[in-house]
Design a protein that fits this description.
Largest sheet: 7 strands, mixed
Distance between the termini: 22 Å
Order of helices and strands: EHEHEEHHEHHEHHHE
Structural class: alpha/beta
Strand content: 15-25%
CATH topology of the largest domain: Rossmann fold
Oligomer: single chain
Helix content: 40-55%
Bound molecules: S-adenosylmethionine
Number of domains: 2
CATH architecture of the largest domain: 3-Layer(aba) Sandwich
CATH superfamily of the largest domain: Vaccinia Virus protein VP39
Amino acid sequence: MLQGDRPWGAFLDAGTGTNSIRWVSGLATERWVAVTGATGDAVQERDASDRVRRAQDRIIVGNWADPTLLAGESFDTILADYLIGAVEGFAPYFQERLFARLRTLTRGRLYLVGLEPYVAERVETADGQILCDIGRWRDAVLLHAGERPYREFPMEWVLEQMTASGFRVVSAHRFPIRYQQRFVNSQIDMCASRLSRLEDRALAAALHARGEALRQGALAFIAREGGLRHGFDYVIAAETG
Ligand SMILES: C[S@@+](CC[C@H](N)C(=O)[O-])C[C@H]1O[C@@H](n2cnc3c(N)ncnc32)[C@H](O)[C@@H]1O
């Protein structure tokens, strides 16, 4: 809707995944480039876009911290779809510089989709408490497995960074989230392989039991209330100049 009848032109999906690549490959672009930091993800994205990918469309495995990645290229439209929260896992401490990096690649519009940090110190609602408990448990498992959890950033912070990097913000909106079973199951299930790697089996068993208790509580709540209402996604549109 924000795009109106502007042409998409050359399109960069700067943090690709099966959702964004499906969306991008259905748009009337001149060409698209989809970037991921993980080789395994690139295979999934290739599968998700296989039927509609044209000769001029590219999926690239790279890291935005590498100054040579897409150096000298520019795009009419850039999408950063849940990219900023994932940067911690690929290029920690690079988040601020990411905006300057994207600025050099943009000759038109940047759309950024993000998630307000939702694992808060103080939570006011039962829904929020359940989501925080799941988030804390998930991050604890990832840390024990030697991985870096995602780090989400508030919309205000993103707007400041964008403006400081030379973007002009056109639109910024928050959208309340209602989490469903799929989210709960995905968060708990993704920890299984991490738990199986832990050397301390007693700790792994205790964490596993805690995860299953959280799952049971959350799914019962969702069945009763129709979802877990907590937090916000945000969508920002910005232009250069
Ligand atoms: C949470 S996923 C984005 C969701 C995705 N748009 C979708 O449709 O499902 C984050 C993406 O950003 C990529 N990413 C994160 N940090 C990166 C970095 N420093 N350089 C390149 N890609 C990065 C990840 O590899 C992944 O492809």
